[in-house]
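Reopening: structure tokens for the zinc ion complex, inputs below.
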Amino acid sequence: MDRLETTAGLRSKGYRVTPQRERILEVFHDLAPGTHLSAEELHQRLRNAQPPISLATTYRTLHLLATLGLLRELDFAEGHKHYELHRGATDHQHLVCVACYTPIEFTGADVEDAARAVAERYGFKVLDIQLKIHGICAACQRRAAQDAEE
Ligand SMILES: [Zn+2]
Ligand SMILES: [Zn+2]
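Re-run output (same inputs, fresh job):
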């Protein structure tokens, strides 16, 4: 989704494009690929915003944008949610390391095809497909092996 599509997305669902909402969407559009932000991290990046955006507004706006399908709400099992732009139907999936919490993104066309087949069987209209693989990343495995040697 590009900038115009996200603001158009807000309007088409009957929501005003307030400076705060626009600014928050802008932050997500400017993120490097593979970056996910928690509400606190987003708020930190908004500290110079004019008009100022409170943490409460940040939370509310994230929730609204996720409900509208403009942002993707992700749970990497750190006790708080992370957000990224919803990049449309062919999105990516995540491997999450339970040791360092670093998410690794991959595109899983076969996984998504399988999920769509399940959805179809249940007469379900798909809005988003989120697959999360929990495990230990290669770097953490190497670190653990080194620690064991010492
Ligand atoms: Zn991601
Ligand atoms: Zn790791």
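The longest helix spans residues 55-67. The longest strand covers residues 71-75. Marking as resolved unless the reporter disagrees.
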